[in-house]
Amino acid sequence: MTVTILGIESSCDDTSAAVIRDGTLLSNIIASQAVHEAYGGVVPELASRAHQQNIVPVVSEALRQAGVGRAEVSAVAFTRGPGLMGSLLVGISFAKGLAAALGVPMVDVNHLSAHVLAHFIRRPGEAFVPPAFPFLCLLASGGNSQIICAYAYDRMEVIGQTIDDAAGEAFDKCAKVMGLGYPGGPVVNKLAAQGNPRAFAFSRPQVPGYDYSFSGLKTSFLYTLRDCLKTDPSFVEHHKADLCASLQQAIVDTLMAKLAAASKDLGIRQVAVAGGVSANTALREAFRSYGERLGWTIYIPPLAFTTDNAAMVAMAGYFHYLDGRFCSMDATPFARVTM
Ligand code: KG4
Questions:
Q1: Nearest partner of 15 among 116, 86, 96, judged by Cα
Q2: Start-end ranges of CATH 3.30.420.40 in the chain?
Q3: Does pTM surpass 0.85?
């Protein structure tokens, strides 16, 4: 029997729909929302409105590109949380309406575990070896920095997480004070390529266990700028590349050190990375060199599956569908939820 899952993602500022058939990705459409750029961050109310505008064309295009008719959809999978409440409500309401109209079940998906399960998406014609359980996954995004131990597709444990800011937030906030726009991570990544990662020594947080903290790094970055701007008003302009490279190095070092400790302590050497920050070139490079040095088998997602996307939601939905784990029509979104 063929299983065709339509996935819908609307947890933050990307409206996305994807179709997965028997574990193979047929389409993945993402409409990003440029409206937030002018505000230097996501404005929840504007995000909900943009989702309302985007969701119908995005879902139609996902079905069209997949070559799948509505009658062929086996179930509608949607992100139930965590995320922005208004944004989640758009996706879940649409999923309910569509599932009811098609007479198919709904599958609710945890956004964080969907990021981890992105490593199981098979693309047509691609040589593909998914991770075997258990594996560790570093999930680094604008809202989360976690180390997750995945024992099974539906059994994951967060063994470490940020106690304050997320890694992506540190990229974005430091980029904002340099006037680099939003989201800052990709711009910092680009500028860092021309800079010296040892030019500035920003503080590396000391937090027990596998937890992270990025607020001290952000403060150390701000204080460096404040002090240097007193004597040189064009300091940022002249040192942008070095500032970006040093900031990026501090974030990557911090993320990798805890991950390496977790891998050593738990004896798990299958190690994956996920989330928006996993698009970062230096982090991907660090993964490769840690992998070689420590004998890890590494899993780095294709760029299309790093930031928020519905392919990962459809993938998670596919696993749930095979187990017959559906949700009811009275399901409500969760703004905050762990695994
Ligand atoms: O997973 P994601 O799309 O969703 C949220 O959690 O919102 O992650 C977005 C985050 C942003 O903070 C963005 O700056 C960061 O991922 N990001 C990057 C890069 N691309 C996206 N950070 C560093 N380097 C990149 N190349």
A1: 86
A2: 4-127+305-322, 135-303
A3: yes
